[in-house]
Sequence to fold (666 residues):
Amino acid sequence: MQFIEHPRELSSFLDQHSIVLCDQNTAEYCYPLLPLELPLIVIPAGERSKNLDSCQAVWSKLMELGADRQSRLICLGGGMICDLGAFCASVYQRGIEFSLLPTSLLAMVDAAIGGKNGVDFLEHKNYLGLFSQNQNTIICADFLESLPREQWVNGYAEMLKHGLIYDKDHFQDCLRQKEGSLPGLNLINRSIEIKLKHTERDFKELGIRKRLNFGHTIGHAIESLSFKSQTQIEHGMAVLWGMLGEAYLSHKYWSLSKDDLQQIENGIKPLLKQHENIDLNFHALYKLMLKDKKNLRDQVQFALLNSLGSAQENLPLQAEQIESGIRYLARFK
Amino acid sequence: MQFIEHPRELSSFLDQHSIVLCDQNTAEYCYPLLPLELPLIVIPAGERSKNLDSCQAVWSKLMELGADRQSRLICLGGGMICDLGAFCASVYQRGIEFSLLPTSLLAMVDAAIGGKNGVDFLEHKNYLGLFSQNQNTIICADFLESLPREQWVNGYAEMLKHGLIYDKDHFQDCLRQKEGSLPGLNLINRSIEIKLKHTERDFKELGIRKRLNFGHTIGHAIESLSFKSQTQIEHGMAVLWGMLGEAYLSHKYWSLSKDDLQQIENGIKPLLKQHENIDLNFHALYKLMLKDKKNLRDQVQFALLNSLGSAQENLPLQAEQIESGIRYLARFK
Fold:
């Protein structure tokens, strides 16, 4: 992984073998900042595009552009572009090189770190994908300036999570951020560091890496369910809801103290905005959770908090227990 | 890789986490030979099924069966099932275990050996796929008995190729086979050994593994072109044509002697049956060859024969040169 200050420094990473993948937004706001002109593939923006249809569009276009095994795909965008682009490159002609240039806070602290890629299948998140060791991530904080403010919360949610599962101080430092302002580079770096600590020790997610899923078992279900409705809930917002629900479960069925739960509630509650439309139907959510990739034999597995800054993976909960977490969430609608 | 004699010995490889993938034929003739009853996924037979639509059917069915990361996909079939099944398993939930149980001669000596998997995309062969280290191949010669005799030629062509590129004696031993009879286990083993010699030394196909593509640059183009016509030409038959054409190119533009070419012609000619309908339109074939995965920057790269039993990879030829090889083939229609 490399840090650069300005997109012009990308000239040493790009050459005539590079092909750029963008969504409609990054094609408009980020692609023009690149220091040389390169072939461009554009797909529609948004999490709904993270599917096999988009992959097929990318593969067709790669063929059309004459991409061969010397080619390199430059994934310039948020989490969707990084996840989908890395997957497309990894299977095109049995694998071409790719680089991730995350442009969103979410992608910088999460999607572009740790080598997971994938796309959604049917209504299930990241059901098709790979662990891919050979990726190259370049963090250029300048791109963040192009990101609409309302999307910062998506990355911010993951940063709070890094604090919650590993570093209490980081959680509190993040909360002290001035509301609506972009987190400083020091906080972004700390989040990347925490994510790498988990992914490098457990690349294939057999153990501690699963702790990064805190908030995501309920969160992914909320996100997936919202795909079917009019008001789609973004990943970060869904994860905030998920963390709140799973913090409650950590208190009720694991060792998180009442005080710690209260601190988490106080920290997250102000961030939950305008979600009177959120669908908290337990049966619909539970059905989705039953397809969570971390499950073992129909048993939903959670990563829960031991305390603020410490987590534990592989904790199974029963349907009734999970339901109590969803009921708790209903208070915050 | 493991050799067993009878399908009943499979009981030590199968358990309640196993899910079997078959095509319609192996579901009828091979699946019933398994020593325990297991969930079954069936897709239509034939190379035309080796595409993303079939993958989506497999992934949907895996979800329906509740497959999780403990599950193992048992690919019971010919090359298509092995290639497609390994790919499906490798990306489902970012990879579940799989075993290959090749039932055809072609799959035993080729598709199930060496860790390549993939599916066709648009009209291009194996354009989406992976190199997958974690496969487990079990060769059970008994399954061959279920294979229609007219399909033996598919595997036989690859066995001849192994001889041509690496072992002159093996080529001649294969030719001495009684016509229409199944090659003996010793010949099958020798072919597997030759394939492994190439794939183990060069897993990612950066060098000598490309020699296994002898006959396949022209062969794949003939096979792909036939997909668009009424009379589909099977892989092995297409490879026989391809080897003949590329042997001619090896003589004309590389170091294969006239005598060696004559031996190859004498060996292969009797195997080319009933192909008056074969489409040898150079422009259509060349257009397909330009999409060959081994190409570098629009230059078609061949593996050619130095002499009987010895090959060399990465040899570029010009369009006019390749055309002379196709014209040569027209004599044998």
In short: Strands of chain B lie at 2-4, 18-23, 40-43, 72-77, 97-102, 116-121, 124-131, 136-140, 301-307, 310-316.
